[in-house]
């Protein structure tokens, strides 16, 4: 099978992109950005998700929004748009906006991967924080999944980000956050504290071995104005190829005690200016 994929490294505005086909599953491709796994897509199966944290994201969404109903989703960080593509396939009629700061990458992923066309999926070339702060829409799902040098940018992990997300979510809306354990569980506790400050309902999803510090992996947090169907989500994540466990709100509240809450003012010289060059594709 032949796909329109690059056969060598490609320079983008902020990274070096490389696409690799899996030998045992040629339809599965992985996008690497500056040497790090960024996205994985099955070119023949848009609902397929390779990354464990994305499977966990979907478990939360599908437990809250049952029946494949159409959703309004905002993605803070895009890369290969694997999760947005799967959400489009699983919830037909959805309208999604992906904020991607790398203009060349946004152009290339449209060429390389079978992504839903606009208006089903719009890719906005803009800093994700500016997109979050300026959007006038109400969203059912907000996904924070942006990384620079294998870490979440500082201006996307402050209390003000959680506050803004809480303002623009629908009543049943979900704010989903992806972090990595390599930044330490103190970061996880701090993020939990910020969410608990802004939302009445918060939960975590994590591989128990990561929680115990035995290996690195992704840390997922979810927040909402409405109560989560915790038992349903718990069953869903335990049935994943790599089973995970729920970190309850009670446990998160314990972890959040004494955690340092990170503010915009803590970022030296922080300022997001209006970007007149932003555009959608």
State the gist of this model.
InterPro entries: SAM-dependent_MTases_sf (IPR029063). This protein is an alpha/beta fold and 281 residues long.
What does this structure look like?
- The structure is a single chain.
- Helix 5 packs across helix 6.
- By secondary structure, the protein is an alpha/beta fold.
- The chain has an eight-stranded mixed β-sheet with strand order 7-6-5-8-9-11-10-12, with helices on both faces.
- It has a single domain (46-258), classed as Vaccinia Virus protein VP39 (Rossmann fold).
- Strand 2 (16-21) and strand 3 (28-33) form a beta hairpin.
- The chain contains nine helices and twelve strands.
- It comes from Actinotignum urinale.
- This is Fused MFS/spermidine synthase.
- One of its GO terms (biological process) is polyamine biosynthetic process.
- Keywords: Polyamine biosynthesis.
Essential attributes:
12 strands, 30% helix, polyamine biosynthesis, Fused MFS/spermidine synthase, Rossmann fold, 25% strand, 281 residues, SAM-dependent_MTases_sf, 8-stranded mixed β-sheet
**Roughly how much helix do the residues carry, as a percent range?**
25-40%
* Widest sheet, order of strands: 7-6-5-8-9-11-10-12
Overall strand count: 12
Encode the helix/strand succession as letters.
EEEEHEHEHEHEHEHEHEHEH
Tally of distinct domains: 1
Largest β-sheet summary: 8 strands, mixed
Q: What is the CATH C level class, in words?
A: Alpha Beta
> What name goes with the CATH superfamily?
Vaccinia Virus protein VP39
Beta-strand percent range:
25-35%
Shape: globular
């Amino acid at each position: 099978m032949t796909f329109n994929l690059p056969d060598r490294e490609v320079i983008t505005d902020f990274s070096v992109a490389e696409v690799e086909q899996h030998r045992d599953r040629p339809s599965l491709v992985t996008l690497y950005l500056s040497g790090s796994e960024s996205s994985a897509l099955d070119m023949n199966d848009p609902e397929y998700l390779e990354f464990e944290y994305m499977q966990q994201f979907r478990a939360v969404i599908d437990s809250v929004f049952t029946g494949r109903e159409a959703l309004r989703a905002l993605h803070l960080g895009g890369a290969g748009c694997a999760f947005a593509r799967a959400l489009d396939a699983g919830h037909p009629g959805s309208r999604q906006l992906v904020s991607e700061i790398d203009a060349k990458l946004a152009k290339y992923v449209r060429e390389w991967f079978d992504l839903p066309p606009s208006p089903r999926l719009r890719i906005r070339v803009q800093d994700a924080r500016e997109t979050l702060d300026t959007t006038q829409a109400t969203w059912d799902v907000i996904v924070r999944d942006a990384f620079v040098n294998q870490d979440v940018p500082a201006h996307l992990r402050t209390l003000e980000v959680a506050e803004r997300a809480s303002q623009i979510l629908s009543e049943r809306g979900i704010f989903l956050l992806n972090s990595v354990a390599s930044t330490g569980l103190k970061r996880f506790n701090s993020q939990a504290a910020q969410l608990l400050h802004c939302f009445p309902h918060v939960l975590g999803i994590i591989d128990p071995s990561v929680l115990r510090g035995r290996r690195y992996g992704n840390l997922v947090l979810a927040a909402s104005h409405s109560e989560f169907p915790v038992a349903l989500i718990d069953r869903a994540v335990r049935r994943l190829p790599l089973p995970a466990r729920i970190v309850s709100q009670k446990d998160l509240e314990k972890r959040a005690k004494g955690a340092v809450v990170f503010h915009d003012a803590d970022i030296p010289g922080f300022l997001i200016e209006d970007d007149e060059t932003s555009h959608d594709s």
